[in-house]
Amino acid sequence: MDPTPLHLVMWPIEAKIPRFWRGHCAFFQGAPSNTVGILGGSSADLSMWKRKSIVTLSLTFLTSSQAILIVWSKRAGKYEYSVTTANFLVETLKCALSVAALIRIWGNEGVTEDNRLSTTLDEVSVYPIPAALYLIKNLLQYYIFAYVDAPGYQILKNLNIISTGVLYRIILKKKLSEIQWAAFVLLCVGCTTAQLNPSSDHVLQTPFQGWVMAIVMALLSGFAGVYTEAIIKKRPSRNINVQNFWLYVFGMVFNAIAILVQDFDAVVNKGFFHGYSFITILMILNHALSGIAVSMVMKYADNIVKVYATSVAMLLTAVVSVFLFGFHLSLAFFLGSTVVSVSVYLHSIGKLQR
After folding, report:
1. Which of 22-31, 241-250, 298-307 has the lowest average pLDDT?
2. CA dihedral 141, 146, 150, 154 (to 10 degrees)
3. I need a surface site. Which of 10, 163, 202, 223 has the fewest CB within 10 A?
4. 41 touches 49 (CB < 8 A)
5. What are phi and psi for residue 21, nearest 5 degrees?
6. Residues 202-237: pLDDT tens digits?
7. Residue 9 pLDDT more than 90?
8. 196 beta partners
9. Which of 187, 113, 166 has its CA nearest to residue 303?
10. Could you count the other beta carbons within 10 Å of the beta carbon of residue 316?
């Protein structure tokens, strides 16, 4: 598609929009602040901008429904199915989707050095670390719902923004602005405020065990996310589906080990799919597509964009939970969510000023 006619039509409008707002709107989309340059640039630039927008918005939608589906899949307050088998199926589905995408690419472009599955030991040896971290984090996210509801989970999940920011600085050597660090502090305040429980003897809605699990999940998610981004961007020409394939293969291996260690007897006696329901299948599909979307964001944007896209999902989860689970939107939750939203806004400004 020739972008020139669009450029001629949009230029008078874009010229009237302050540069700041153009850059701010580009935060979630991953687009450069000079929107005029994109619209008047090459088709490749416009295609990349659209790709960033689609994968980030998709991640936001999928994440907002993730916690809801996990809670919905429980029966009488507990999981009738094996969470290790569910995680194994998630990794298997992600691996299958990556292979399907590669088959399509091979049919259109042929097999090249960047899209072939064959690799070296040095290249593939880095994937077990994030795969193992994601295994532990994914298992913890099921058990944390013994202490929190879906909106509370989304609030506490935002703690991984802190770990991601710190590890971003340490591992990838990328400098964060003072405004971004201030946004991190606000995020902590917002998460804590949203968890206040004035109608109970307990100060916080989530008990100590829930906070510990949330902090551990934040550290695991932050390290795994930044580490994976470093792997993916180390060889930018390498097809993302090849990189995903090897990550998910190790994910399948580790989840298979988890099944043997934790649920072997239950699987043998009751069957692999015991306790599965339609909601469970939807949850597995959601997790698989979310994983693909996360890797796409890391490839074409960055991990900071990923964690803030998931933060927006917090608000969507709260609204949906009101209708599905009768969740009560307290003043503390509203104020905490507002503070978290402000931190998102400040972080976007800080990113532009880096």
Report:
1. 22-31
2. -50
3. 202
4. no
5. -70, -35
6. 545 667 788 888 888 888 888 888 888 788 778 878
7. no
8. 204
9. 166
10. 17
Q: Take residue 242 and report the two structure tokens written for it.
A: 């090849």
CA distances from 149 to 287, 315, 345 (A): 18, 14, 26
The answer to whether 187 touches 179, Cβ cutoff 8 Å, is no
Query: 150-157 and 303-325 are packed helices; what angle lies between their axes, rounded to 10 degrees?
Result: 160
CA–CA distance, 328 with 149 (Å, rounded to integer):
11
pLDDT digits (tens, 9 = 90+) for 249-259: 999 999 999 99
**In this structure, what token pair is assigned to residue 200?**
């109970």
Rounded-to-integer distance, Cα 242 and Cα 259, Å: 26
Q: pLDDT: is 279 or 314 the higher one?
A: 279
Q: Which residue has the tokens 């989707």?
A: 97
Structure tokens that stand for 262 in this block: 């934790």
The rounded distance, in Å, linking the Cα atoms of 7 and 55 is 24
pTM to 2 decimals? Answer: 0.73
Amino acid identity, position 65: S
pLDDT, residue 87, reads 94
Integer Cα distance of 292 and 295 in angstroms: 5
Question: Which stretches of 117-257 are assigned E, i.e. beta strand?
Answer: none
Give, in order, the Cα–Cα distances in Å from 300 to each of 236, 336, 347: 10, 31, 19
170 with 230: CB under 8 angstroms?
no
pLDDT at 155 over 90: no
Assess contact for 158 and 191: CB atoms under 8 A.
yes
Tokens of 106: 């091979």
Chain length of the chain: 354
* Distance, CA of 63 to CA of 218 (rounded, Å): 15
